[in-house]
Write a structure and sequence with these properties.
Order of helices and strands: EEEEHHEHHHEEHEEEEEEEEHHEE
Low-confidence stretches: 1-5, 7-20, 225-229, 340-349
Largest sheet: 9 strands, antiparallel
Strand order of the largest sheet: 2-3-4-8-9-12-15-16-17
Strand content: 25-35%
Mean pLDDT: 86
Radius of gyration: 20 Å
Number of strands: 17
CATH class of one domain: Mainly Alpha
CATH superfamily of one domain: ApbE-like superfamily
CATH architecture of one domain: Orthogonal Bundle
Distance between the termini: 16 Å
């Protein structure tokens, strides 16, 4: 989710005719969840009214999920849940239940590295950036005492969640955008438009490929930003998702130390290791959360975590002595695009 992914299926334009086909490419954009959501859909020109209504429905679904999952909105469902007393089963929406349940399962799989209950630590880190002063050991200890997926109990039959302690805070930033992207894709597919791409910052999920193509072209940024896209690594995806997590664009420097915006549950501080992870998965909920998890786990543990998963591939780029070093799972290369292309790659703004 964090480093930018670039969609390179065609030079950008609002409407582009396909080769030998009646389909045209339509693009819709709106800001949501602190980033820009972009929909690219291939459809017949006579379907424009239907497609526009469907796009509005998809954006409304994303906005609904933001109202559920955002820790920045005071009256969001996740913040209202945090205010509820402990020891009492709380009925929550289907979406919030799934997001917290999936996050808790991933917390267990990553030995606590990925944790949606780490809100106290993340709020503390935000104050660190605001005050330009690292938290004390006492502040970190108090925040850790209110953090832990073990403090939640799930009841799928009643769709309730019980908090075992008071003072819990939540952060779904490592999974919510991917979940919203999947929901938008589902809206288009159920509406009869399978050739679609949904991009939400560093999370991209695609349906069927564009006409006469094997897949959607997606470019992967590494740890260094550059304007030249000619040598950009690209992958071809169809009915898959890819997410990239890292500190290429979002970081903070204090006392000559560069900290990532991604907060380690182990230290309570932003990561200082320069690492980026790109994960390919069947859906964006998985690719988003797994990319964040790999970044938090680090090179060795992160790669091992992915190698134990079916239908998941990963590339990790780390900075060693000023140079980028890439390691990847065995199956990642099968998604890489061959270099010969007739069109110049252009990013989605």
């Amino acid at each position: 989710m964090i480093s930018r992914l670039l969609t390179l299926s065609l030079p950008f334009a609002f409407l582009i005719p396909a080769h030998g086909d009646d389909l045209k490419l339509y693009t819709y954009k709106q800001p949501h969840m602190g980033s820009e959501f972009t929909f690219r859909i291939w459809a017949e020109q006579g379907q424009l009214s239907e497609l526009t209504l469907l796009s509005e429905k998809a954006f409304a679904r994303v906005a609904e999920l933001n109202q559920i999952a955002s820790d920045y909105l005071p009256e969001s469902e996740i913040n209202n849940f945090a205010k509820q007393p402990s020891g009492k089963p709380i009925s929550v929406s289907k979406d919030l239940y799934q997001l917290l349940d999936l996050s808790s399962r991933l917390t267990e799989q990553t030995d606590g590295a990925f944790d949606a209950t780490a809100g106290p630590l993340i709020r503390l880190w935000r104050m660190t950036k605001k005050n330009r002063r690292l938290p004390t050991s006492e502040q970190l200890a108090r925040a850790r005492a209110r953090t832990g997926a073990d403090f939640l109990r799930f009841d799928p039959l009643s769709r309730t969640i019980t908090k075992l302690i008071d003072g819990m805070l939540f952060d779904l930033g490592g999974i919510a955008k991917g979940y919203a992207a999947d929901a938008a894709l589902t809206t288009f597919k159920e509406g009869g438009f399978p050739r679609v791409l949904v991009a939400a910052s560093g999370d991209i999920v695609v349906g069927d490929p564009p006409p006469n193509r094997q897949g959607w072209r997606v470019g992967i940024e590494t740890l260094h930003l550059g304007d030249d896209l000619k040598d950009l690594q690209t992958v071809l995806l169809s009915n898959m998702a890819i997410s990239t997590s890292g500190d290429t664009r979002r970081f903070y420097e204090l006392d000559d130390v560069r900290y990532s915006h991604i907060v380690s549950t182990r230290t309570g501080l932003g990561l200082t290791e320069r690492i980026g992870a790109s994960v390919i998965a069947p859906n964006a909920t998985t690719s988003d959360s797994f990319a964040t998890a790999v970044t938090l786990l680090g090179e060795k543990d992160g790669l091992q975590f992915i190698r134990n998963k079916r239908e998941i591939e990963c590339q990790i780029v780390a900075l060693r002595n000023g140079r980028e070093v890439a390691i990847r799972t065995d199956g990642f290369s099968r998604f890489e695009e061959k270099k010969a292309q007739e069109e110049s790659p252009v990013p989605t703004p």
